[in-house]
Design goal:
With 258 residues, the protein is an alpha+beta fold. Strands 1-2-3-6-5 form a 5-stranded mixed β-barrel. Strands 4-8 form a two-stranded antiparallel ribbon. Helix 6 runs parallel beside helix 7.
Length: 258
């Protein structure tokens, strides 16, 4: 017999509380302490974090120099394909982290864009460290001797080829200043050193901000050798020679190379 003041919902609440108090419904914490359950979860979580860190560090593409993080400079390098050469000492690189091992250029969704429209804001502007090439004609100013030869050499040497750039810093023009290497006949070649050797560039001279990595002494030795052989920009009369830095200063530019 139900009491007049009792209700069906009240009875249900009492039953529900009783069911929670029932030992059969208590949480079995031993299940979560069992190594057979804990170990796989720990391994899966650790592997996920490790793969995520590896991807961010080594496989994530960097579209532009402004996207290079502070911990990357002087510690890491960029591998990719040269998409254009703008002057005799700078070019644009499409970053392909992991190279062909990561599927670049053979997987359908990992192709390097070919048109300027598709490449817009997707390339790292690289300034070759430690060298200063003769200035080409800009804004009505005449070109320096051997500027066209230097440009043509760099273009034929790098364009559409894969290179590795060891980056040091970002300059005032949002370019990554870097020592650049290319594979030629299975040998690794320093691009800046090749230009110095041919007399198509001079060692970069500046009161502050010059970047060489650890290669300044070697660069100066090679430049001295090119001068003694009178190759390239050193083939003319000494008194008629004007360095790229002096040329820029004479035309009212900042001493930072453009």
């Amino acid at each position: 017999m139900r009491w007049p003041w009792s209700s069906e919902s009240g009875d249900r609440d009492v039953k529900r509380l009783s069911s929670w108090a029932n030992p059969a419904n208590a949480i079995d914490w031993e299940h979560y302490r069992d190594p057979r359950n804990v170990v796989p979860v720990v391994i899966l979580t650790g592997a996920t974090l490790l793969l995520s860190t590896f991807y961010r560090s080594y496989l994530k593409r960097i579209p532009q120099a402004i996207n290079i993080g502070p911990t990357f400079w002087r510690r890491r390098s960029l591998f990719g394909r040269v998409t254009s050469v703008g002057d005799a000492d700078n070019f644009r690189l499409f970053h392909t982290p992991g190279g062909r091992l990561a599927g670049w250029e053979w997987l359908p969704w990992r192709k390097v864009p070919e048109t300027s429209k598709d490449l817009k804001e997707k390339t790292v502007h690289i300034r070759i460290a430690g060298i200063d090439a003769p200035e080409m004609a800009h804004f009505g100013r005449p070109s320096q001797p051997f500027s066209q030869e230097a440009y043509e050499f760099l273009k034929s040497y790098l364009l559409h080829r894969r290179v590795r750039a060891y980056v040091y810093k970002r300059d005032q023009y949002d370019r990554a200043v870097a020592t650049v290497y290319i594979r030629r006949w299975l040998l690794r070649k320093d691009v800046g050193l090749q230009m110095l050797e041919r007399g198509l560039a001079a060692v970069y001279e500046a009161k502050t901000g010059a970047e060489f990595g650890h290669l300044e002494a070697e660069y100066r030795t090679v430049e001295k050798r090119a001068k003694s052989k009178k190759v390239g920009m050193w083939s003319g009369k000494r008194k008629e020679y004007e360095s790229p830095r002096d040329y820029k200063a004479r035309h009212g530019q900042a001493t930072q190379s453009t």
